[in-house]
Amino acid sequence: MGVTMRLLVLGVAFVLSAARADAQVYAVYQGNDTGGIISWSCETEALAHDIAGAHCARFGKYHRITGVHRQYGDYISFNCLWNPHMARFALPAVGTRSSCRAHAYRPRLRVRY
Q: What are the backbone angles phi and psi of residue 69, rounded to the nearest 5°?
């Protein structure tokens, strides 16, 4: 009975470790030492400078937001630069929203009495 229990525990451990090997962790951003992308949402656009700055700081560099596509499924792109004044005109900085607010559709109605 002891050998059967040990084989059962080893089998369960093997199955669980194999199932976990294919699991993917959702990441808000991806990149390397030259730059990266941040998946767009209204909330991540408000935090884009913080996310890009923290990523580039790991490599001792400065960040520059280079593109914002305001649509779900698109990305915010950024570059990591050695000098914040480098390639100022070749890679222009793109502005981002500083807050996220809901845009409710309100039709304009005229009421005549």
A: -110, 105
Cα–Cα distance for residue pair 64/81, rounded to 1 Å? 7
The separation between the first and the last C-alpha atoms of the chain, rounded to the nearest angstrom, is: 89
Cβ contact 75:101 at 8 Å: no
pTM: 0.63
Query: What's the mean pLDDT in 81-92?
Result: 81
CA distance linking residue 107 with residue 113, whole number of Å: 19
Q: Locate the domains of the chain by residue range.
A: 25-92
Residues 6+ apart with CB under 8 A from 31: 37, 55, 78, 80
